[in-house]
Amino acid sequence: MGKKIAFPSPAGRPVIAPSVLSADFTCLRQSLRGLNTAAGWVHVDVMDGHFVPNLSFGPHITGNVKKAAPLPLDAHLMVERPDKFIGPFADAGADLITVHEEAQSLVGACLGRIKALGLKAGLALKPKTPLARAVKYFDRIDLLLLMTVEPGFGGQAFMPETLLKITRARKAIDSCRRKIWLEVDGGINGRTALRAVRAGADSLVIGSALFSNADPVRFLRSLQKKIEG
User: Fold this and answer.
1) DSSP string, 150-173
2) How does pLDDT run across 116-138, given as a tens digit for each residue?
3) Distance between CA atoms of 166 and 208, rounded to whole angstroms?
4) Residue 51 near residue 80, CB atoms below 8 Å
5) Low-confidence winner among 37-41, 79-83, 116-120, 170-174 (lowest mean pLDDT)
6) d(CA 96, CA 26)
7) Do 73 and 41 touch, CB atoms closer than 8 A?
8) What is the CATH number of the domain that holds 127?
9) What is the DSSP letter of 31?
10) 45 an active-site residue?
């Protein structure tokens, strides 16, 4: 089992979560080196080829990511049956596990299982899924993830029509008076990151724009200053 790290609670400042889907897996440790100086946690996209039309990686690779990056780890399960994956990813070292509201498993049961394992729980929505379908779970989640692209592939363009949904989610979270991260994932770069933060997001998953940069650590630090400003 990977070493568990305390997953942070919202503290009034936005954070950045590098998505290792876009990292160089031929030299993973080097690819992630130094990111812990500016990143909030590491985001691992798990795809089963059914819930989304792509395959990524499983618990073993996630365990290697945990060893390579001394940061909390969020396993984002883009799978049809997240109930079958919660245990293995907890064993691999996930500190937070995010499941999709649209999955075939019972969402409430999945969130309960994650919590029973002593982990933080996240709930994700696809761009076209109404926010109302997540609100009823606010009493048991630590993170709400709004997809700002259709999930399945990295490198897609940010969908500007999701900005209104982000703003509505921010208001709903503030009204519930619980500390819940509002995360966005998809098409985040130096320009769209600022738009998402202004709309209300306080966690940004970033992949292609980060790992395609000649100096990812410098880019990450610069972006962190920009969204805090």
Assistant:
1) -TT-SSPPP-GGGHHHHHHHHHHH
2) 999 999 999 999 999 999 999 99
3) 22
4) yes
5) 37-41
6) 26
7) yes
8) 3.20.20.70
9) H
10) yes
For 88-116, write each residue's pLDDT tens digit: 999 999 999 999 999 999 999 999 999 99
What is the tens place of the pLDDT at every residue in 191-212? 999 999 999 999 999 999 999 9
Residue 140 lies in a domain: yes
Q: Is residue 4 part of a domain?
A: no
> CA 175, 127, 43: angle at the middle one, nearest 5?
85
Residues whose CB is less than 8 angstroms from the CB of residue 162 and which lie 6 or more positions away in sequence, other chains included:
127, 146, 147, 148, 184
Question: Is the separation of the CB atoms in 170 and 182 below 8 Å?
Answer: yes
Give residue for tokens 């080097």: 30
Active site (annotated) includes residue 95: no
* Residues contacting 33, CB < 8 A, separation 6+: 217
Domain that holds residue 23: 15-228
Catalytic residue among 45, 74, 83, 95: 45
- Structural domains in the chain (count): 1
Residue 3: the pLDDT is 63
Tell me the DSSP string of 53-105.
S-B---HHHHHHHHHH--S-EEEEEESS-GGGTHHHHHHTT-SEEEEETTSSS
In a domain, 7, yes or no: no
* 144 C-beta neighbours (distance < 10 Å), count: 28
CA-angle at 100, arms to 156 and 209, nearest 5°: 25
Q: Exactly one of 83, 95, 185, 202 is catalytic; which is it?
A: 185
Instruction: List the beta bridge partners of residue 144.
Output: 123, 182
The type of residue at 111 is: L
Within a domain: 142: yes
